[in-house]
Amino acid sequence: MEIDDSSSTVFTSRFSYSDSDTSLHYIQNETEVLCCINGPGELPMSKRINDRLAVSVVYYLENGASTSSNELQEFANLMIDRSSHPRAGLSINVIQMRDNGSRISSALNSVSLALLDSAISFDVLFAAVEVALLSDNNLIVVNPSKDVEEKAVATALIVFSSVAKELKVCGFRSTGIITPDFYCGAVDAAKSSANEVFEYFRKTMKERLSNTSTF
C-alpha cells in the first residue's frame, strides 16, 4: 500500500475564558471546532458518582443539533484521573463550526488540548489521527479532507498515547472493509501526524506557561 502523508498538519488555537473555565477555538487543517470545559464542580446528589468524577461530553453540529459523541466520551473518561475528584462533575461541550474532513480526530485533539489547559489531573494524554483508503490506487491518505472521505472505501480513527515519546496505539475505529495490511499501513501512516499533534500540544502549553504572569 502507498501512503500519502506529504502535507503536514496545520494547527491554530486560541483560548478564551469569557463563558467557560476553559474555552478553546481549535482549527486543524480546514476543520474548526470550539471546545468549552466547565469544572470540576459540584453536582446534584442524583448525578454524583461517589468514587470518581462524572464526565459529560456533548457534541454539537453547526446547526446546533447534538450528535453522537461516543468516541469523545470514552477517551475523555480514559484521559482524566477521575478518582482525584469524587462526587464532582466536569462538562465538555464540543461545537463543530466547520467540517472539511477528519472531524472526530480534530474534536478529540481539541478536547485533549483544552483539558491540558484546564490543569486537571491526567492518567494519559491522547492524540488522534484519521486515515482513508482509496481503492483506485490502494492509497492511504492521512488526515483526509471531506472530499477524500467520500471517495474512500475504508476510513479509520487511530488514537495514540505517548509514553517517553514512544507512540502506542490506544484505539482504532474503522468504517468499511479493512484488512490486516490496511491496519498496519494505517498505523504506520498515522504515526508522523500523531507526533505532530503531540509536538503542537507541547509547544502550545510551553508558550502559554511562559506568557502567564505569577504573583
From TrEMBL:
The keyword Nucleus applies. Its main location: nucleus. One of its GO terms (molecular function) is RNA binding. It is found in: Nucleus. One of its GO terms (cellular component) is nucleolus. It comes from the Eukaryota. GO terms for biological process: nuclear mRNA surveillance; poly(A)-dependent snoRNA 3'-end processing; rRNA catabolic process; rRNA processing; U4 snRNA 3'-end processing. InterPro entries: ExoRNase_PH_dom2_sf (IPR036345), PNPase/RNase_PH_dom_sf (IPR027408), Ribosomal_Su5_D2-typ_SF (IPR020568), RNase_PH (IPR050080). Keywords: Exosome, Nucleus, rRNA processing. This is Exoribonuclease phosphorolytic domain-containing protein. It comes from Panagrolaimus superbus.
